[in-house]
Design brief:
- The structure is a homodimer of 234-residue chains.
- Chain A is built from 5 helices and 12 strands.
- Chain A has 234 residues and is an alpha+beta fold.
- In chain A, a hairpin with a 2-residue loop joins strand 1 and strand 2.
- In chain A, strands 1, 2, 3, 4, 5, 6, 7, 8 and 9 form a 9-stranded mixed sheet that branches. A 3-stranded antiparallel sheet of chain A has the order 10-12-11.
- The longest helix of chain A is centred in the last third of the chain and has 16 residues.
- At the A-B interface, helix 1 and strand 5 of A face helix 1 and strand 5 of B.
- Chain B binds a DNA duplex (27 and 27 nucleotides) through helix 5.
DNA sequence: ATAATAGTGTCTCTTAGACAGTATTTG
DNA sequence: CAAATACTGTCTAAGAGACACTATTAT
């Protein structure tokens, strides 16, 4: 009878065909009340000219989340931002070159942080509990998307909407300090409809997640709003 | 310049090392108010003697969900049950034999349907929004689990709890017709605490998801409860 | 009748939406 | 002062927990 160590010593993994494993990252931001997604125009086959999510293959000894962070750094030029796994897409035929299983992720960044990649407004044709693919638009035209990336984007928006009510995701989309109005605009951009102001304020202030800074925004032509900070874990 | 068809013709995927991709299925059921999970005792290295989730490798041309359904059929003897993707676990070193990335799934079956696999009560040491690994117990002893399957089980319970409030998952754990008491017991088993009876009844009856059958349970020593049916999509 | 559970009526508390009001800034 | 927006007070409606009550069955 072999010990476990002996077993591992003599173990032969075999040479059956294995799929490639990739990560794709749905990098989202909200600017001026509009939900946007980072996309890259493909300049190579397949799907040349279509728009894709930043992605890359997972190294044989690389953790999946680490691969997603690497993609974020290399293709979007950002680090240390909100990043979580979304869903794994792996239908045979989703990439015409070979079998590729991709672990999709969602990343959230404040407006204006992305410099090395372009972002486009996200448009969603469904509401509430439904789901489906989502589009990215430019000048009123919807952009053609590569592979199944429109489906991935749709799942990302749906997940984001679901998390909004019980998770502090919106803070990842805002700068260090922000006004309640800006926070509300982020919520409205994600869920796709307007919210009641007094109710929104009550709710977020009662959550205990916000700390007033005492500072005010530099006013435009009106009364300046107080700046708040997100109360990180306590 | 190559056309896309020509490009694909000459494309060489290369021979870089690829991870193996597997599916694991957390098959859960609720019997007599107790949440249980199907586990298989390993009779081979590695982790011989420990308990694992039913799982298997994804074929090179096999859809991921299809692989999970195949595992359900072959290892648990059930088909056509609730099954959805949970999370992808892929840390290097999670399997000592080789790099294995596993797409974990959750399946739900009514009590008494599983015959070819044993189930064990699930015990969770955390509450509410937290998370963490979960244990399976037998005769008061917690079972040693293989690989990272305790973590996977923990994520499955957390996800199940989260879905409970806005998704009709509980019906997948009940037979065709059931009493409101049985439905409430399923909810209590999943969320881990007792619920208020009148409030629970009001909520589920108002949801429009339930249709009274007019039938009654065959009574034990008391007033028999009415049997309801889940109103499938309308 | 008694035991045991099914099912309901009602009170209260919390929370959200609606709406109108007051406060504070620039010009 | 006017304009514009920040912020708040209050009313109302919906929903949940708590508790006690009535209803129906078997023994």
């Amino acid at each position: 009878m072999l010990s476990e160590a002996e077993f591992l010593q003599q173990y032969d993994p075999g040479d059956f065909e294995r799929p490639s494993v990739a990560v794709d990252v749905v990098v989202m931001t909200v600017c001026e009340g509009v939900l946007q997604v980072a996309l890259i125009r493909r300049d190579q086959h397949p799907h040349m000219g279509r728009y894709m999510l930043p992605g890359g293959f997972v190294g044989i000894d690389e953790d999946i989340l680490a691969a997603a962070n690497r993609v974020l750094r290399d293709k979007a030029g950002v680090s240390n931002i909100f990043l979580e796994q979304l869903y794994t897409f792996g239908g045979p035929g989703r990439d015409p070159r070979m079998r590729v299983i991709t672990v999709a992720h969602v990343a959230l960044v404040p407006c204006g942080v992305l410099e090395t990649v372009a972002t486009y407004p996200v448009q969603v044709d469904w509401d509430g509990e439904d789901g489906g693919p989502a589009m990215a638009v430019q000048d009123g035209e919807s952009l053609p998307m590569a592979f199944d990336h429109a489906d991935i984007l749709g799942v990302a928006v749906k997940r984001l909407r679901g998390r909004l009510s019980y998770s502090p995701v919106a803070y990842s989309l805002l700068p260090e300090t922000f006004t309640l109005r800006a926070l509300q605009e982020v919520h409205e951009a994600i869920c796709g409809h307007r919210l009641n102001k007094p109710s929104f304020r009550r709710r977020v202030l009662a959550s205990g997640e916000l700390v007033p800074t005492g500072e005010r925004e530099e006013s435009r032509a009106h009364r300046p709003a107080e700046l708040y900070r997100f109360a990180l874990g306590d």
